[in-house]
TrEMBL record:
EC number: 2.5.1.54, 5.4.99.5
Lineage, broadest ranks: Bacteria, Bacillati, Bacillota, Bacilli, Bacillales
Parent-protein start and end of this portion: 95 to 357 of 358
Protein name, as recorded: 3-deoxy-7-phosphoheptulonate synthase/chorismate mutase
Keywords, sorted A to Z: Isomerase, Transferase
One of the record's GO molecular function terms: chorismate mutase activity
Length: 263
């Protein structure tokens, strides 16, 4: 169902009027994790200034270590919803379990399925059974074919509003946190009719690479760019090394706006 052979036209995912996949470049920005109302509000205000309507933020965090911050859970979703309503932003947030899909419907505008859950088939089926856009991230070590099949799980249950997200894959290279598989973008766009987002934060794990990788993503045809923004990354409870602070975010956006025209 996700194949271009089944449907030649691009799928455009409409999130409260913001369209991903119609040829216009979109941005999904926000903190790694929701930490407080104040933190989310500050980031939301910065997004508004840049005309961005899609705010990300993790309430349920799938951390490598069980001793690391696991997220605020439902409280985090409530904060996202509150700030989203106050500022007119749409909320993108990761849901970890099939049981929480139903609960999330009242709080999020896009359900994110994280890299670690790309082949959690029960979660994919649950996401496929609701009427809510899904942002599906590529697994840490998933082939493009496996990634496409994960999207097929969702669509085969009836939910066709899927955004694919390339977020880097595990390779032998240690200079970056993951290896951004930039050629996955045109391959996914050729093989499927779904929109593609590139997450420059989790793929690189390096602040100095966010801008060049975002430029590459735009040049190669990504429909949207995702990156993390935190008011004070030094004290962030997760991904503190690679989140942009607010002035860095503004300069990132200004540079890309200039670059996008030239490309
Ligand atoms: C995230 O986007 O918050 C995240 C945890 O990313 P990934 O699933 O790609 O590691
Ligand atoms: Mn993160």
């Amino acid at each position: 169902l996700v194949s271009r052979k089944k449907k030649a036209e691009d799928t455009v995912v409409d999130i409260n009027g913001t369209k991903i996949g119609n040829g216009e470049l979109q941005f999904v920005m926000g903190p790694c994790a929701v930490e407080s109302y104040e933190q989310v509000k500050q980031v939301g205000l910065a997004l508004k200034e840049q005309g961005i309507t899609l705010m990300r933020g993790g309430a349920f965090k799938p951390r490598t270590s069980p001793y690391d911050f696991q997220g605020l859970g439902l409280e985090g979703l409530k904060i996202l919803r509150q700030v989203g309503d106050e500022l007119g932003l749409s909320i993108v947030s990761e849901i970890l379990t099939p049981q929480d899909i139903e609960l999330s419907l009242d709080y999020v505008d896009v359900i994110q399925i994280g890299a670690r859950n790309m082949q959690n088939f029960e979660l994919l089926k649950a996401a496929g059974s609701v009427d809510k856009p899904i942002l599906l991230k590529r697994g840490l070590a998933a082939t493009i074919e496996e990634f496409i099949n994960a999207a097929e799980y969702i669509m085969s249950r009836g939910n066709g509003n899927i955004i694919l997200c390339e977020r880097g894959i595990r390779t032998y290279e240690r200079a970056t946190r993951n290896t951004l598989d930039i050629s996955a973008v045109p391959i996914l766009k050729k093989e499927t009719h779904l929109p593609v987002v590139v997450d420059v934060t989790h793929s690189t794990g390096r602040k100095d690479l966010l801008l060049p990788c975002a430029k590459a993503a735009i040049a190669i045809g990504a429909d949207a760019v995702m990156a993390e923004v935190h008011p004070d990354p030094a004290v962030a409870l997760s991904d503190s090394a690679q989140q942009m602070d607010i002035p860095e975010f503004h300069s990132f956006m200004e540079t890309l706006k200039g670059a996008a025209v030239k490309l």
